[in-house]
Amino acid sequence: MNIGQAAAATGVSAKMIRHYEAIGLVPAPVRTEAGYRVYGERDIHTLRFIRRARDLGFDMAQIRGLLALWNDRGRASRDVRAIALTHVEALEERMQQLESMARTLRHLAAHCHGDGRPDCPIIDDLAAAEGAALSPKTTRRRS
Fold it and tell me: How many CB atoms lie within 10 A of CB 117?
């Protein structure tokens, strides 16, 4: 398969396939005399593995570790499980952060009149994050 066919077969763009090759995540494929990449079934399987791992939110370092374990027939499943459970903990923490952000924004939006007035608790809250909530009238220009 050429790179376009490999991209279509795996759902990984040609650009990302080249990137994965450049960072050493996938081995350089065999090339024709003309320099075109040629992908075999093993390459396609590896790209699908990476695509699925990315879909599950694993970062590149985790994927590199998972690929190493996948290629190690003597691996211990506990090593794979440990990576997965560490990732689950990070996902759950991120979900809590996202839920907190959503609650805050819902609260701020509920207290915003949403009319023609310039007063807005959403803007006030964002401005307060820099130190103090200042209205445009009290903000001084810095030279």
Answer: 8
Main-chain phi, psi angles of 64, to 5 degrees: -60, -45
**Which residue ranges in the chain fall short of pLDDT 70?**
130-143
Q: Which of 29, 59, 89 is the last residue of a domain?
A: 59
* Backbone Cα Rg of the chain: 24
How far is Cα 61 from Cα 86, in angstroms, rounded to an integer? 13
Instruction: Tokens for 90, please give them.
Output: 């990070």
At residue 141, the 3 state secondary structure works out as coil
| End residue of a domain, out of 34, 59, 84 | 59
Q: Indicate the pTM of the whole model.
A: 0.77
Strands (E) located in the chain: 30-31, 37-38
- What's the rounded Cα separation, in Å, for the pair 122 and 92? 27
Q: Which two three-digit tokens encode residue 129?
A: 């994050």
Structure-block tokens of residue 136 = 């445009």
